[in-house]
Amino acid sequence: MVKQYHMDLTGYSNPAANTINIDTGSPGNLAILNLNGQPLFAFRIMKPCNAIDLSKLSSGIYLITFIDHKNAQMGKFIKL
Predict the structure, then answer these.
(1) E strand or H helix at 62
(2) Cα gap 23→21, rounded to integer Å
(3) DSSP string covering 6-49, please?
(4) Which of 3, 27, 34, 52 has a 20 to 30 A CA-CA distance from 80?
(5) What does the pLDDT look like over 21-78, one tens digit per residue?
(6) Could you tell me whether strands 60-67 and 19-23 are parallel, antiparallel, or unpaired per DSSP bridges?
(7) What letter would DSSP give residue 58?
(8) How many CB atoms lie within 10 A of CB 6?
(9) Topology (CATH level 3) of domain 10-79
């Protein structure tokens, strides 16, 4: 049986120009991936609210993953 957990991963402004704010609710590892699943950036998140610099990314759709000590969540965002 697979246990499902609710996580509070929230990203705003989406679509984003150069910064996206991520609220994770707990420390963990955050990664930005392209649509092929290839990691582009990885961060260790230590505080619940983080501003992520997107200025080095081209315009497009990206995936974002967050993993803490017992949960994992994936979402997507648009870079303008």
Answers:
(1) strand 60-67
(2) 7
(3) ----EEESSSBSSEEEEE-SS-EEEEEE-TTS-EEEEEEE-SSE
(4) 27
(5) 988 888 999 999 999 999 999 999 998 888 999 999 999 999 999 998 888 889 999 9
(6) unpaired
(7) P
(8) 7
(9) Immunoglobulin-like (2.60.40)
